[in-house]
Every structure is written in C-alpha cells, then in structure tokens.
Amino acid sequence: xxxxxxxxxxxxLPSLSQLILGLLISMPMFAGPVRMAWGELVFAPHxxxxxxxxxxxxxxGDFDRDGDPDLATANFRGTVSIFMNNGDGTFQPAQDYSRxxxxxxxxxxxxxSLATADLNRDGILDLAVANTASNTVSILLGNGDGxxxxxxxxxxxxxxxxxxxxxxxxxxxxxxxxxNSTDNTVSVLIGDGTGGFAAKADVATGTNPVSVAVxxxxxxxxxxxxxxxxxxxxxxxxANTVSVLLGNGDGTFQAKTDYxxxxxxxxxxxADLNRDGVLDLAVADTGDFSGTTEAISILLGNGDGTFxxxxxxxxxxxxxxxxxxxxxxxxxxxxxxxxxxGVAINVFLGNGDGTFxxxxxxTTGEADASLAIAxxxxxxxxDLAVANxxxxxxxxxxxxxxxxxxxxxxPYRTIRLADQATWCVQIEPVNGSFLVTELLANTIVMxxxxxxxxxxxxxxxxxxxxxxxxxxxxxxCFAKADLRALFAGLPKGANAVPVTLEGNLGSGGRFRxxxxxxxxxxxxxxxxxxxxxxxxxEATLGFMTSRPGFAKASIFDVSGRSVRVLLDELSLPAGYxxxxxxxxxxAGERLGSGVYFYRIESAEGTAAGRFAILR
Length: 615
Prior knowledge:
Elements: E1 10-11, H1 16-26, E2 42-43, E3 47-50, E4 55-61, E5 70-75, E6 79-83, E7 95-98, E8 101-102, E9 111-117, E10 126-131, E11 136-140, E12 152-155, E13 160-166, E14 175-180, E15 185-189, E16 201-204, E17 209-215, E18 224-229, E19 241-245, E20 257-260, E21 265-271, E22 280-285, E23 295-301, E24 307-313, E25 319-325, E26 334-339, E27 344-350, E28 356-363, E29 368-374, E30 383-388, E31 393-397, E32 399-400, E33 402-407, E34 414-416, E35 423-429, E36 445-448, E37 451-454, E38 462-464, E39 473-478, H2 480-486, E40 493-504, E41 510-521, E42 528-531, E43 539-545, E44 549-556, E45 562-572, E46 575-581, E47 594-602, E48 605-613
Parallel strand pairs: 33-41, 34-41
Antiparallel strand pairs: 1-13, 2-32, 3-31, 4-5, 5-6, 6-7, 7-8, 9-10, 10-11, 11-12, 13-14, 14-15, 15-16, 17-18, 18-19, 19-20, 21-22, 22-23, 23-24, 25-26, 26-27, 27-28, 29-30, 30-31, 33-35, 35-39, 36-37, 36-40, 38-39, 40-41, 42-43, 43-46, 44-45, 44-47, 47-48
C-alpha cells in the first residue's frame, strides 16, 4: 500500500460584498496600534506581496520540489496564484493561472477554496479549486517545476465553498469532498488515480455547510468528514452546528450527526488538541456581528466518532479561519486565527489539554481570509502566511528567535577532541528577551555546518551569574561522543569554529545564540556515536562527514555475517548523519538477543563498533 498522502485543506470567506460589509462593521474594533509581538513569540513585521484578484484561501506545498514550501492562493476574481519560495522566506512575484492555463481566461466562477495533494500519483503536487459561482471543482495538475497544466473541471453541488482531499474508499487513489452551501450537502468525487474523478455523490449535511475537515474521528482506519454549518444568514447564523459524517471505507458515508457549536460557525479544523490520541475539533464562530458572540469552540473527541463541548473563548472580531500547528516549538498544538475585515491575526498557545492561553496579536494586511503555518525560511521555526482579501496581498510573517548570548568559562574555553570529556557552555538572555528559567535544557542543540547534537539531559543545567554581569545564565553541557561526531571532519590542530545554540523556551518560542569556539581536531577520519546501547528498543548511529562522497553502513552478527545494510550511497552530502537501528534484519525479521557489530565505510575513512540487543 502506498504511504498515506499529505495534503492541505483550505476554505473561503463569504462573497466579496459580504466581506466588505464585514470589514466596515468591524473596522472600529481595530482602532489604534496593534501589538506586533507578545514577549517570547516574536514575528518580524509582515512583508506583503501583491496578490491581485482578492485571495480567499491559501495552501502551502513544495510545487517545484526544491525542498522549500511554496504558496498558492484561490482568488475571488477568477485566478489561482502561485508564489515560489526563494528558500529564505522571500517569494517571487505571483504566477497566475486560470481556466485556460497561465494568462488565459478566468476560472469559471469565483474560486473560494483550494487544496493540494498528488492527485495523479506522479510524485508532484496538484491543486483542486472550488468555484462557487459555476458549481465546479477545477483540477490543475502540477509539472514539478512550479507550473501547472490547463485546468479540468468536474461538477459539484450548488455553491461549492470548501474542498478537501483524502482516500475515501481505500483504493490508494485520492478523492475529493466539496461542501455545497446552497444544497446543504457535501459532494464526494472518487478519483481514478490519473487526476480524473467520477460523477459526484451527494451526502446531506447541516444548513449552509461552508467548510469541511477530514480525519478518522472514530479510530476505525476510515476517513470521516466534518462540516461547519453556518445557517441561513451570514449575520445571525441559525444552524450553529458541525456535522460529522462517518466514513464506511467504500466512498460512502453514514447519515450526519450534528453537534452544537457557537454562533455562525464558518470554519472547522481537526487535530488532537488534548494529546489523548483522539481527534478534536476547533471551530471558528464568526458570530452575528454584534461584537458579543464571536468565539472559538473546542469540541473534544470521545474516540468513537462522538464529541463533547470543551472550552469556548473569545477570539477577536469575527474569526473566520483557524490553522493549527506548533508555533512555539513546545510540541503542543497552537491556534492561529484570521478574522473578517481584520488587519491582524490572533494566536493562542496550546496547553496540551484542549485549552489555550493568552491572546497574541500580529498585524497583517487588510481582511484576512485564510492563513498557513510553515517554516518558510528553513530556520527550524514555523512562520505564517496570510491571504488578505481586501488589499489583495499575501502577508509573510517570519518568526524571530529570542536573542541570547553564549560564552564559555575555564576549563571549557577549548574543545580537545582527543581527550575532551563533557564540554559546557553558558547561555543568558539579551536585554531581557526571556527569563533564564524558561530555558528548556532538554531541547537545546548545538549546530555546526549541517550537523546538530543535543545537550546532555540533566547534566549541569544550573543557573548562576558566573561572569558577574548581573544577568543569570544557564549552563548546559554536551557529551564527548557527540562532540567528536559533530567535529569529526576538522583537520588536526586548533580550529576556530562558529557554532549556533538553539532551544525552546518554557513559555513559548525559541532562543538562538552564536559563538565561535576553539576546537582542537584529531584529524583521524571518521567518528561515530551509537545511543542507546543496548537498544531500547531502537538506537541511532551517528557519524559526521566533512565532504561529499560514498558511504556504506552495515550490521554484522558475531559470525561476521551481514544482517542489514543501513546505508549505501555513492554520493552522500557532507554533514552529520543519523541512521536508525530498529533491531530488524534485511527482510524485516526481528534480530535475536546478542552482540552485533556495525561498520561504516566512507570517503572520510572507516569506523566500526559494537552494540547489544536485549529482548
């Protein structure tokens, strides 16, 4: 079976006239300056890119296969725009596509939503676009270089508003689900694996379904559907529900079950918000424009496809879209919320139990319609991309780490790889950028080149003011074996080596400090490190290469028989490499208890060692 696909779901705003009216109603609520950051979670001021056509929805995907997340928007005035990432969080000007291809006629009827996945199984991302005025969904097949083929349309119900992609019938071919707000249905289109789709089959939802989410909410291995139902009026709602449609695994769905949400729920997203292994729901309740009914509703999953109301909390004026991701690097899901007519987005950090803390507000362009979370500049911290419908721009917000200073004291000013034991470094905040007690020692890493090693958990993670500058710092340490692996490629003798230290803060966000240290290299070729040893139940084997070249890593039993080849590359890039030892042989069989040996051959030299498996 092919691996489960990855895909992004997006939905849309109401019509443009409704959007502008919402803007006029809510604008006074943003009078005065808007906070740019909140303490530990900091984003640089937004950088805007022209997005003509009033962007309503945004998705991220690597459309040119260069490893960097690109962006696509669905534009109300009839186009789809592609923004190619330069790799540093900046983007090339938009390339627009329409019904007839690039620079051709507009899409047939107001694109409101789009999703991305590999629809024809060629390893290249494609796009599915819901066109609300023409009752169609358009498919744009990707060419793999960031360009797309001419769109092909398929019929939906009346007034399609949101599109999602998954495999509804278990045939390893991706299918579509589109909410139809006039028909009160969701259309299911079964894919043929080539980018084509069968005629729709409609399933009843609540009144005025405007967004759709996907997930296995009852744990039976079959994908289910969830819709948010806004009711008959944009101003007062009326349905105020979400509909859950359990999948049968054959492309059909059971009759809906409705659950109450807040007033005018216009978006729903599914994720495990309380870490119990069960999907929960986050719902954007846009409210009745009175200023008192806007909220985020959290519905906690019971694991059997049913839900119970969790917390409800204010989210700012008319929340319209929610993106879920780990914004502060603590491993817990957070919420980023776009608002109708807004000039800012709101962020709520997750506590890991289905509740959220502290409103953080960041300015954007006007009338946020949709947003995406991704590491846009490749620095290991996630950033934000926001589609702004009224000023027709794409706002990029790059996350900025908290400033820190790193320094060493005697006897740790020099790392001597030949005989160095544990090496320690001090880290302190700069200009009160964070509290030193917020440093999470077990998340701190040291980077050199493309390599990275973790700090030793619990090893001298102490707080003091060792340099007497009146600022408390924390001491963190790194193990001898890791240091040797990280700096294995250095020539013999003293080397001035620039390193970066990074880690998470307990209250959210990350810190970063840079330091140049003296490392006395051994100059004796390849260094390796295996941990844990014995396996428990797995281990990682790390090694460092300073230049590209061949590399092969194998496991042998005590008789010298090869039992597993972990790596066999003709041209392995330079850097720190980590191999997984899972205790299994070449055919996937479990290896018995005993002593085993590994051997790594590379352009750097040869290294060997032993490890044990205990069953």
